[in-house]
Design brief:
Rossmann fold; alpha/beta; Elongation Factor Tu (Ef-tu), domain 3; 6-stranded antiparallel beta barrel; single chain; MnmA-like_central_sf; SH3 type barrels; RNA-binding; 7 helices; tRNA processing
Length: 367
């Protein structure tokens, strides 16, 4: 097959490209230029978006012995990922930009261009596994290394995208990938992993949003209210600086009566009110989802598990589907679940699909 290997400049994508070539495919390396001004995104060798990363990807392609190109997708990335990130926070929601990038950029814009150019598939360094099911559909499963598993951020991929995807690292753990990179002579073998949002240069999401949103923010400040007493216990300069479940950085002027920490329970972007309260009030046992994306056949009901954060644990759940609405009853309650996040649904290790969290219901509250 003719394969485009998406090369970020990190160790995972370099080894994935090398494995694809070793498997006999005709591989071309492609680095995605996602920043209109690379200096405005994260600096340093962190695995995404910088000039250094582009150079690292090019050197890796030279060692592997494959052609290499840079595709400029900065305008599409800004519109579909960065603008979406700002809009979601301005609306009081908490988005996952990596998941959106996979949906809109790596497995949509890149795949569309690759297919138009006559390629058959896109290979990436994501940790996930693909298998052909008994019904002939392509199934996506968790990686062997559950600690590195990235199926959560791939839960937006549909069947057509999965049929044209390759994840060569799904059967390997990260230490083995680094050892393999070193054995192959790839200079990125010891390059640090990327953890922060690639377009927030210093990791300060609130500061970045404050600068970028400007007058687009629905408010520039408001009250922080205690859910237990109804008392105003602080103030803030913008709801986009908060997310459900947050404990640090609240700067509350009035301590809780029991002396325990308080957490963000609710965000109301129009009035600017941020509600805080005790940790036990974070627990939810029902999640309402919208905008579902299914990896295969649309289910009516799934008795399985859901993952509600990129690095969160699985929760046993009963999922029912009616059109574009997904109802998730959590048998294991979850804490700090924010609208805008993704709920990824699993049947064992297989990814069934995902939905965007629209609302939650606290434990003990009726329908």
């Amino acid at each position: 097959m003719r394969v485009v290997a998406a090369m970020s400049g990190g160790v995972d994508s370099a080894v994935a490209a090398a494995r694809a070539k070793e498997a006999g495919h005709d591989v071309t390396g492609v680095h995605l230029a996602l920043s209109r001004n690379p200096a405005s995104y994260r600096s340093g060798a962190r695995g995404c978006c910088t000039i250094e990363d582009s150079n690292d990807a090019r050197r890796a392609a030279d060692v592997i012995g494959i052609p290499f190109y840079v595709w400029d997708l900065s305008d599409r990335f800004h519109e579909d990922v960065v603008e979406d990130f700002m809009d979601e926070y301005a609306a009081g929601r908490t988005p996952n930009p990596c998941l959106r990038c996979n949906e809109k950029i790596k497995f949509a814009a890149v795949l569309d261009r690759a297919l138009a150019l006559g390629f058959d598939a896109v290979a990436t360094g994501h940790y996930a596994q693909l298998r052909t099911g008994a019904d002939g559909l392509i199934e996506m499963h968790r990686a062997v290394d559950h600690g590195k598993d990235q199926s959560y951020v791939l839960g937006v991929l549909d069947q057509d995208q999965l049929r044209h995807s390759m994840f060569p690292l799904g059967d390997t753990d990260k230490p083995a990938v680094r050892r393999e990179a070193e054995a192959r002579g790839l200079l990125v073998a010891d390059k640090p992993d990327s953890h922060d949002i690639c377009f927030v240069a210093d990791g300060d999401n609130a500061g970045w949003l404050r600068e970028k949103l400007g007058d687009r923010a629905p408010n520039h400040g408001g009250d922080i209210v205690d859910a237990t007493t109804g008392e105003t216990v602080g103030s803030h300069t913008g709801t986009y600086g908060f997310t459900i479940g947050q404990r640090r950085g609240l700067r509350l002027g009035v301590p809780a009566a029991d002396g325990k920490p308080r957490f963000v329970l609710d965000i109301e972007p129009v009035s600017g009110t941020v509600t805080v309260g005790p940790r036990e009030r974070l627990a939810v046992d029902h999640v309402a989802g919208t905008r579902p994306r299914w990896c295969g056949t649309v289910p009516e009901r799934v008795d399985g598990t859901v993952q509600l954060r990129a690095h969160g644990r699985e929760h046993r759940a009963v999922v029912t589907v009616e059109g574009d609405r997904v109802a998730i009853e959590l048998l294991d309650p979850a804490e700090g679940i924010a609208p805008g996040q993704a709920a990824v649904i699993y049947d064992g290790t297989r990814v069934v699909g995902s939905a965007t969290i629209a609302a939650t219901r606290p434990v003990g509250v009726g329908r």
